[in-house]
Amino acid sequence: MKIHKERIDIKSTTQIEFIDITTQVQDIVGRSGVREGQALVYVPHTTMGVAINHNEPMLLQDFMRILYKVVPVDDQYSHDLFELRRESNSDGRSNGHSHCKAILLGTSETVPIEKGVLLLTERQNIFAVEFDGARDRDVVVQVIGY
After folding, report:
1. Residue 55 lies in a domain
2. What is the per-residue pLDDT across 84-99, written as a single tens digit (0 to 9) for each?
3. Residue 88: inside a domain
4. Contacts for 116-125 with beta carbons within 8 Å, 24 or more apart?
């Protein structure tokens, strides 16, 4: 069995952003040499998520609208009360809403690999989803198989 790991560097530009990383993930699968197995796509950030869905601009707008509606930016989040926090290493962002959005989405997706290709349909794309941009981010892709 082979295990291959690479990182994808991302620079988000807006607060909420769906960044299509499907091609980069498939490229990593190709470099791994794995023909049958799975690819784990993981974001090591607490204000970011991973999703698989259709890359259609109006649908992405719908996703953003729903995320803003379910977890509004202007609500009161205890996390944002920095003066009450005991940690001194805060970056000063009021981003409680970003953490809440991220926990709803999750930090990873696993995609089967068949004949060296991600087993996605033509309407499925892999997105790194930013909730606290603009930031420099990375995505870990681990490919496992034969």
Report:
1. yes
2. 565 556 566 789 999 9
3. no
4. 116/29, 116/30, 116/34, 116/35, 117/26, 117/29, 118/22, 118/25, 118/26, 118/29, 118/39, 120/22, 120/52, 123/54, 124/52, 124/53, 124/54, 125/20, 125/22, 125/52, 125/53, 125/54, 125/55
* CATH number of 100's domain: 2.60.120.460
Domain interval for residue 20: 2-77+95-145
Q: Is residue 47 a part of any domain in this protein?
A: yes
- Prediction pTM value: 0.92
Question: pLDDT per residue over 12-56, tens digit each?
Answer: 999 999 999 999 999 999 999 999 999 999 999 999 999 999 999
